Amino acid sequence: MASSGEVTEPEWIKRVKSEGAVPCLKPDSKDSKNSWTTPSPNTFMVRGPHYFSDKVKVPAGEFLLKPLGFDWVKGPTKLSEILSYPSSRIRKAIDEEFQTEDDAAKPFVWAFNLQLPHKDNYSAVAYFVATEPMLQGSLMDQFLKGDDGFKKSRLKLIANIVKGPWIVRKAVGEQAICVIGRALSCKYVSGESFVEIDVDIGSSMVASAIVHLAFGYITTLTVDLAFLIESQTDAELPEKLLGAVRFSELQTDSAVSMELSSSNSNQRSSWWKSLGNGFSNLLNQDTPNMNNTTSPGNN
User: Fold this and answer.
1) CA dist list (Å): 59 to 3, 40, 62, 148, 234
2) Which of 20, 110, 212, 263 is deepest in the core (most CB within 10 A)?
3) Comparing C-alpha atoms, which of 232, 240, 236, 234 is closest to residue 50?
4) 23 has a pLDDT exceeding 80
5) Helices 89-97 & 11-18, crossing angle to 10 degrees?
6) HEC profile for the chain?
7) β-strand 241-248 against 35-37: which pairing, if any?
């Protein structure tokens, strides 16, 4: 399991964390304006080892994944499937660090893309990475191998307003918890070395209203978000956090512009054009042969 400390953190992870447009700071930094960090896992309460009999929640303990990065981005359209693009920041950094054609040899990345309901299509994207082999049959393994129905019923979010105006605290509540797929529309995108969950917050009227309210105060907010897979049987207890992120006083003008949709469109157009040219060349090559072919009736 991954701890929240940086003692054994690989150099490449430190570098990737430091390269984002929103700087990564230590949790105890005094000036946290427009930054992100990793909060203590013990600030989150999860289902304890005997939860189904005693309903007791306990501090979460260590994370299962290591924090890898945080992106504050916007686009001409809603941003999705970010890790599917080799040009995306995290994907590019890993491809350059681990120069191999074997995706299975690369560290496995989990991305949570929170798509905000806004005309500028903002996304807050948290990235985490597994630095140890995944245990077969574990909840993480089941989640990755499970269908969308399993994912919808298990992925859980814990949200906490660490600092902000009373009206936002009141709207969100203390340590708001929800199974994301039951409350919001999600898209699950999987690759050989990553899984990305695109969460459309605008798909829920309630969530959309809360985010619209909070967005008006975003430059004053400090928010903790934790992600976990819900335990639904005794054997799966206690719950463990996949990872958590804290972002503080985000500035709208610091969001980096991305144009993944247009890039995707260009890639598709290029692919179809190549296919069309190839098919045309094939026909042109075969035409003389067809014209010179002697029919069986002429023999």
Assistant:
1) 14, 10, 9, 29, 18
2) 110
3) 234
4) yes
5) 150
6) CECCCCCCCCHHHHHHHHCCCCCECCCCCCCCCCEEECCCHHHCEEECCCHHHHCCEEECCCECCEEEEEEEEECCCCCCCHHHCCCCHHHHHHHHHCCCCCHHHCCEEEEEEEECCCCCCEEEEEEEEECCCCCCCCHHHHHHHCCHHHHHHHEEEEEEEEECCHHHHHHHCCCEEEEHHHHCEEEEEEECCEEEEEEEHHHCHHHHHHHHHHHCCHHHCEEEEEEEECCCCHHHCCCCEEEEEEEECCCHHHCEECCHHHHHHHHHHHHHHHHHHHHHHHHHHHHHHHHHCCCHHHC
7) antiparallel
Q: What are phi and psi of 295, to 5 degrees?
A: -70, 155
Q: How far apart are CA 226 and CA 65, in angstroms?
A: 12
Tokens linked to 255: 């969001």
- What is the overall mean pLDDT for the chain? 87
pTM of the entire predicted model: 0.85
Pick from 238, 233, 171: nearest CA to 206 = 171
Q: Closest Cα to residue 69, out of 1, 11, 18, 7? A: 18
159 strand-pairing partners: 176, 225
Strand order in the sheet with 222-229: 35-37, 241-248, 222-229, 155-163, 176-179
Q: Which two tokens stand for residue 83?
A: 């890790």
Q: With 0-12 CB in 10 A as exposed, 13-18 as middle and 19+ as buried, what is 137?
A: exposed
Predicted pLDDT of residue 101: 78
